[in-house]
Write a structure and sequence with these properties.
This protein is α/β, with parallel strands linked by helices. The protein has helices at residues 12-24, 35-44, 61-71, 86-94, 107-123, 152-163, 171-179, 187-198, and strands spanning 4-8, 28-32, 49-53, 55-56, 59-60, 76-81, 99-102, 126-129, 132-135, 140-143, 146-147, 169-170, 204-207, 211-214. The longest helix is centred in the middle third of the chain and has 17 residues, at 107-123.
Amino acid sequence: MNGKVYALEDDASISGLIGVALQMNGIAFEAFSNIKDFNAALDVSRPDVALLDIMLPDGNGLDVLKSVKQRFPSVSCIMLSALSKEEDKVNGLNLGADDYVAKPFSVLELAARVNAALRRKKQCGEIVVGSLALNAETMEAWLNGAKLDLNKKEFELLKYFMLNPGKVLSRETILLEVWGYEQGETRTLDNHISRLRKMGISNLETVFGIGYKLSVN
């Protein structure tokens, strides 16, 4: 898949059309009709892009926008709303939205905007795996929206795992790719893994006799 999108939209016909258009572009898609279910999904796994309606049955999408940007600043947010006046768009963008699309809209245009958001994230060196997010340019990483305090080698190790999610990586391969040597004392690697786990990265799994893998939730 080329990315993952969550849509918070209470009109099932609209979210259905969006889902078809995005899936045709190889983009994973999940739709939520209320804020409660959307937030529950965010707690489990983070999308690359969130599409947010404003007028919702259990709240205001602008409040959701502020919450998402506070907790998960790397998630790109595109507002979808029947509120199409200039001041509405300016308000949404000033609150942190990355884009604003007024209803009614073309789903093909929306898919193009989502693809553009995904390209910008890649150009910025952003990587997202489940509840983990990383920016290769700024050398910053977050877990569930909380910034991790990593030294240079811990960051490089985490980045290597996030570039290879779900793959079993041998100790020898990790030492070569992250430390630059093919054979050596693996205690250094094990100690770094232990420190990452203590920071809350519990999905770093030991594969006995081989090495480690970053499991994908």
